[in-house]
Input
Amino acid sequence: MGRVQFADYAKVYVTGGSGGAGAVHFRREKYVPKGGPDGGDGGAGGDVILRGNRQLNTLLDLRYRKYVNAGNGQRGESSKRKGKDGEDEVLETPLGCVIYDAETKERLGEITEDEQEIVVAEGGKGGLGNWHFRSSTNQTPHHAQDGKEGEKRAIEIELKLIADVGLVGFPNAGKSTLLSAISGAEPKIDSYPFTTLQPNLGVVSMPDYRTFVMADIPGIIEEAHEGRGLGIQFLRHIERNNVLLFMVSSQQDIAYEYEALLDELRAYRSDLLDKPRVLAITKMDLQENYELDPEKKIDLDIPIVEISAATNYHIDELKEIIWEQIQTVESSREDTEKNTG
Output
């Protein structure tokens, strides 16, 4: 998987199509001298629809579509013929999008499945033709209804990456190096903080045709939940990951950095800490004989693996541990669905 330009937010002004007007018409037939009203109804306006597409992983295309209008319905015709409905306007989005009304902040829904659809602006109804208004006292109605205007609103779309495991760590913890080492992704790698300015996804392959999706999320800094650094714009991606892989460099104070990362997630959304966690101590190739200073070792109730992505040290063990955690989440979800079903 190569690197793509990424966009995780878009604001779009959407307008449903207007309904067509009903027709005013009277039958004109050679042998029917007193033909009655037969004006048809106007067509309905088209809807603006968001549709999930599993092939997409960015909102970049919508950044360039600020105003989206569905087609208008056509006017009704004679012989009670209904006007043609307006064309729907379909916007394809990646899975993991949450949609809000930009003004009221009402949550309109989320796209989590391929081809799932959400109508974000309904088209207006077509007007009734004059044949609807005939009566015993008015056998030649000369009026029909106008079509209704379509719904109009501004929507905000946020993309929250869906991945099996998300990498959580401060800048330069080795997340991009690990992702490139164990998947087909090609993230930018350098020795400077914040080389990852956009999330990257990689598919990790294992024996027996097993695979899982890993997301490299830009490095957190302390007080990121307050908007410092890259801030919460990237913390939100962690919400959709099933397992969190914390990464701390062996060159740092491991206990301090791990607790600082926990504090940032807790301050942003405390329920993120309910997710299964694994801690990887990275860059072990920089330690003498791959031995960690005993003073740096920490005792946690989560799996801890000392790794080196540069030399593949304990990488296979790490993948197996992550796989086990993912299976635990999926088993728990299946049990919940059975009990609620």
